[in-house]
Amino acid sequence: MTTPPAPFLPMSRAEMAALGWDQCDVVLVTGDAYVDHPSFGAAVIGRLLESLGLRVGVIAQPDWSSAQAFAALGRPRLFFGVTAGNMDSMVNRYTSDARLRHDDAYTPGGEGGRRPDRAVIVYAQRCREAFRDAGVVLGGIEASLRRGAHFDYWSGKVRRSVLLDAKADLLVYGNAERAIAEIVRRAQAGERLREMDGIRGTARVRDAVPEDWTVHDLSDPDLPSARPGGERVALRLPSYEQVAADPVLYAHAARVLHLESNPGNARPLVQRHGDKELWLEPPPIPLATPELDAVFELPFARGPHPSHGEARIPAWEMIRFSVAIMRGCFGGCTFCSITEHEGRIVQSRSEASILREIEAIRDRTRGFTGVISDLGGPTANMWRLGCRDPEIEAVCRRPSCLYPEICRNLGTDHQPLIALYRKARAVRGVQRVFVASGVRHDLALRSPAYIDELAAHHVGGRLKIAPEHSEPGPLAHMTKPAIGAYERFRDLFAQAARRSGDKLQLIPYFIAAHPGTTDLDMLNLALWLKANGLKLDQVQTFLPSPMSLATAMWHSGRDPMRPVRRDGPTVFSAKGLKRRRLHKAFLRWHDPENWPILRDALKQMGRADLIGPGKRHLVPRPV
C-alpha cells in the first residue's frame, strides 16, 4: 500500500508522531523558511524524496550556535541534505559594497541574520556534531557555485571547494533530481556515500585518481590543448594551491570548467586540494518535459509551513501567484550564475502542466484575485527554445547561444509561447497574466508578434529589460548585445504600447563597475542615459559571485572567454570603494547627492565642459 504524501513535510517530533514515524530517512536542513512550493529548492527535493518512498523531515533556519536544533528530528537513516537555501548565503547577507543587509526575503518577517555566513559549511558541521556517523550531502546554489576552488569576494581570496571545508560526504550541483534519486538508490543498497562515483552532477573527494582513468593535464595554460578521446578520460585543473597563488591560473581553470559545461560532451574534472583529489562529475542530463512536469506536479502544499504562523515571508509573497515555465538559460551572461547552476540548455514544462498549475493557484492559494503575477523563469521568453539539431547541441562548446550574435542553429520561434499566453489568459477565473521575468530583448526582436502580445496583454505598467550598458567594451565582457538591440526593442515596444492603448513603461537595468568597464565607459553611459531621458532609481554594482566568468575577470585581470595566456591582454576592473561608488554615481547622474563626486571626476577626466546649467551638461555647477 502506498503511503499518502504528508500535508507538510514534518518539522518536529510531534509531526513525525502524527504520521506514525519513529525516524526520518532523510532530514533536509535549509537556510530558508520552509515553504512547500516548487519555487523553493528544499521543498522540491523533499517532495521528490517522498515520491521515492522515503520519510523526509525538514529543519528550516536552525539556530546554529549549537548542535541541538540539528538533532531535533533524530538521526536520519540515510543522510542529512544540507542547503543554504535559494541564495548563496554571502550574496544574501551582504551588498556589493560588502555592507551587511538587515533583511532577508526568505525569512518570516523579512528578518535578517537568521542564517550563518557560508551556511552549508556551518550546517554540515553541526549535523556531524549532532550525529557523528550520519551521512551529509550538500546541495543548492551555494554548493553549486562553490563546488571547486573559487574566489570569495567577501574574504578577498580563493577558497577551497566547500565540500572539503564542510567535511561532507558528497556534493550535488545543478538541478539535483536525477542525482539525488541515484544517491538514494545506491544508499538503499548499502553503498557508502563517500564511495559513490559516476553520478552526474556530483562532486566527491578521492585519495587518488583511479588507475583505469586517463587524466589529461590542463593545469597549465601553456600546455597543448589536445582534446582526448575515449570513455575514461578526465581533465586536470590547476590545483587549489596553484589557483590560490596565481590569478592567471585561476582564470584558466575557470575557462576549462565553463568549456566543460555541456552535458553532451563534458568530461570529469579533477582538482588537487592538498593530498586529496576533488572529482567533479560532468553536469546532469537535463530533464525531459514529462520529467520536469512530474517535478512541478508533486503534491506540494503550496504555502508556508504552519510553524511560521501568519508571518510574512517576502519571497513567498512575491512568487505565490507566479508560475515557472522553464529552467536554464542559453544567454551565457558572464556575471550570471544560472549557467553554473541550472545550465544553458533550456528545460521546458508542457503547456498542459503549466495550465494545471494556474488552476491549482486559482483553487488552492489563499488570496488569489484572478491575477497571475508572472509566467516566466530565468528568462521570460526562452520557453521551448533551443538548438534545432541535437547532434550539434551535443558537441557545442559555445558559452552563449546569443553572443556575439544569435546562433544560426538556435530555434527562435515565439509562436508556441504566444499560444501559451493566450491559453493562460483563457483559464476560468483568471483576469490577468503578467510577465514579470526579464525578457531577453535581442531574442524578442526575432518575433515582433511576441512584442505586440506582450504589450497588449502581459505588462502591468512596467516591463523589465536588461541592456546592462551602452558601451561595446563592457558589453563584450558581459557577452551582452550592443545597445542598438535595446533601442530597436524599445521602439517596437513603444509602438506596440500605443496600439494597445495602455501607458506602458520600459524599465532598463544597468550594471556599474563590471569588469572591462572604465571611467570613460561609465561617463558615456551617463550621457546616453541623459540623452534618452532616463533617471534610474534602482541600479546595481557588480558583485563578484562565486564561480562566474566575470568574477574570474575581476580577480585575475584576464578574460576566460578567450584562451588565457600570461602575456595576453588584461581586463580592467574598478576596485576599491571610492571607484565603485563613482561608477554607481554615473548611473544616477541626476541625483544631487552624486554631483560632488561627479564634478571631481569630470575635472580629473578633462571633461569639466560637462559641468554647467545647460541641456548638454551632465551636472550643474555648485551653488
CATH architecture verdict of the largest domain? Alpha-Beta Horseshoe
**How many independent structural domains?**
3
User: Can you count the beta strands?
Assistant: 23
Count of runs of 4 or more consecutive helical residues? 23
CATH topology call of the largest domain: pyruvate-formate lyase- activating enzyme
Are there runs of 5+ residues with pLDDT below 50, and where?
A: none
Helix content, binned percent:
25-40%
Widest sheet, order of strands: 3-1-4-5-8-9-13-12-11-10
Name the assembly state.
Answer: single chain
Whole-angstrom Rg: 25 Å
Global geometry? globular
CATH homologous superfamily (4th level) name of the largest domain: tm_1862 like domain
The largest sheet is: 10 strands, mixed
% residues in beta strands: 5-15%
Averaged pLDDT: 96
C-alpha end-to-end distance: 81 Å
Structural class: alpha/beta
CATH class group of the largest domain: Alpha Beta
What do you see in this structure?
With 623 residues, this protein is α/β, with parallel strands linked by helices. It folds into three domains: 1-202, Response regulator (Rossmann fold, 3-Layer(aba) Sandwich); 208-274, no CATH class; 321-590, tm_1862 like domain (pyruvate-formate lyase- activating enzyme, Alpha-Beta Horseshoe), CATH 3.80.30. The protein has 23 helices and 23 strands. The strands form seven sheets. It has a ten-stranded mixed beta sheet, with helices on both faces. A three-stranded parallel beta sheet has the order 21-22-23. A two-stranded antiparallel ribbon has the order 2-14. A hairpin with a 2-residue loop joins strand 12 (269-273) and strand 13 (276-280). Helix 9 runs antiparallel to helix 21 (549-556), helix 17 (448-457) packs across helix 19 (483-500) and helix 20 (519-531) packs parallel to helix 22 (577-587).
